[in-house]
Design brief:
about 150 residues; mainly alpha; Ferritin; two-stranded antiparallel sheet; 7 helices; 2 strands; elongated
Length: about 150
């Protein structure tokens, strides 16, 4: 269980790194760069939540809903995207599309999904903390739609 949570924490950390890379590469579009930075900060917050889960899990009062293999696959997908965008920056629309797919994939590693606490208070705490940050897909989708409208596509 601890190995899975450690991988999930790394997924969130690397997603934050990816979004900072995209923010730098799309600095010429201030609104998009700001969105990437905001999303990176939220991923950092998710990583902190998973780290909190790691500390709580020692009591064996939780169960995992993701396998170690699946968590590793998600991490590998993020690492692949990071390597790709470092070698060749991608256009904003493509980056938004890839980020939307990535966010859907990463949802499996979010603390409130990956860990099911038996203690209802802990479960409610993590669910509430994550609720404000779970709309990444919606924010990215809205930015993509705005961009498409601006481009007339």
């Amino acid at each position: 269980m601890r190995e899975i949570l450690a991988t999930c924490r790394r997924v969130e950390e690397r997603a934050g790194d990816l979004y900072r890379i995209l923010a730098d590469s799309h600095a010429h579009v201030p609104a998009i760069s700001a969105l990437w930075r905001k999303t990176a900060r939220e991923e950092d917050s998710h990583a902190n939540l998973v780290a909190q889960s790691l500390r709580k899990v020692a009591s064996n009062e939780a169960r995992m809903t993701i396998t170690a293999q699946r968590a590793a696959q998600i991490l590998a997908a993020i690492e692949s995207i990071i390597a790709s965008v470092r070698n060749q920056p991608i256009p904003v629309a493509q980056a938004l599309e890839e980020a939307i797919g990535l966010e859907r994939l990463m949802a499996e590693c979010h603390a409130d999904y990956a860990v099911q606490f038996n203690d209802p208070v802990q479960h409610q705490l993590f669910s509430a903390m994550m609720a404000a940050d779970q709309d990444h897909v919606g924010s990215l989708q809205a930015a993509l739609e705005d961009l498409r409208r601006q481009l007339g596509a």
